Amino acid sequence: MNYTSENNGEGECECTASSFQTGIITAGHTRADVYGAINMPIYRNAAFEFADSQAIAAAFQHRRDLHTYSRISNPTVANFEEKIKSASGAENVIALASGMAAISNTFFCLAYAGGNIVSSPHLFGNTFSFLKSTLPDFGVETRFVDVNNLEEINAAIDGNTCAFFAEIITNPHMEVANLPEISKILRARNVPMIIDSTIVPWCGFDAKEAGVDIEVVSTTKYISAGATSIGGAIIDHGVCNWKANKKLGLLPKPKGMSRFMFKLRSEIARNVGACMAPDTAYLQSLGMESLQLRYERMSRTAYDLALYLSGHPKVLKANYPKLDNSPYKAVSDRLFTGNPGAMFTINLSSKDACYKFMDTLTVIRRATNLFDNKTLVIHPESTIYGTFTAEIKKIMGIEDNLIRISAGLEDWEDLKSDIDNGLAAL
Ligand SMILES: Cc1ncc(COP(=O)(O)O)c(C=O)c1O
Fold first, then answer.
1. Whose CA is nearest to atom 6 of ligand 1?
2. Quick check: 58 pLDDT over 90?
């Protein structure tokens, strides 16, 4: 990937960065600040004033360098979007209020009554609920398939398939779909590939090379830099042929923007109204700047802990795509550079054993989130999936003897001894 950050017409400075890390630091904030502020200030206001009627009319003509009302666009949020654009190498990015806002806006944009989505059932709980319960009320069906079975994916697609959807590493199953192979099928059938890439950031995964058209990300996770705020982003790599989509194909193709992003920016996102707050954009722009450093350390700790636990007598199984026992090791090694994410799971002898283990921990925190600076532990079956019926849990493959751990920035020795104490209690 060529990580370049180009001036988008907002000011005099022009930065061309050659690396991922430098690109993030230099992207955005191109207009000279009146006080010379080094960070993009927080524009915590709803409305922007114009000198005359013609100027405000011009600003409403989708000018990305002008802002009229912060539900539609905001300078601090635009700065954050530029940083993501640089990091992901994407054509266009829109930041929203949460990861779920990114997911729901994406499907509201490309799906239509009578259309269908082909998806893995192994999804984050709210995403599954959105596809299984919310979208059918709007006439959109989701066809759940085994994404490791290419024939099943191909057979599920028909002339009304609006999208294929999967998570980059499924949570909590730790599955990795063979995206380049799936992409060949999807490109032949003109179906866009939408991937939730929350688990592995751009320094570890080149989405465009893997055949991904649109990425959706919960920026609440690594990017917020310590669970500071809730946010999300939709990342358009500008490679999809939207003409084949029954709804978007009817739109004219705007310059420098896909039909998908045009519809999203000019209609869906502003109508749904789940915009990112400027304060969040400020925090998460700072978070982006240390993303790579934190990710390398956290993902290394996740691998080391998973490897240690895979040989522990009290652990039935440790699940992490880089471990030799993982059926996804080959595809994971192909897709990801470095370690595949900072999350892993372990199976213990029973649900009671999981609770006992968790209740003994003192360094690791019992909380529902991922990629905080603090290491977090959760029992997914009784929490994230706790309100789902036994039947749905079976479809989703949620086991009651499984624990999920998200590695943070603490020293590995402290985490290891906390885990040893937890396992000794069993
Ligand atoms: C993989 C994945 N996608 C999306 C989300 C939703 O993100 P948010 O909580 O920012 O809406 C989560 C939340 O945990 C997640 O784990």
1. 99
2. no
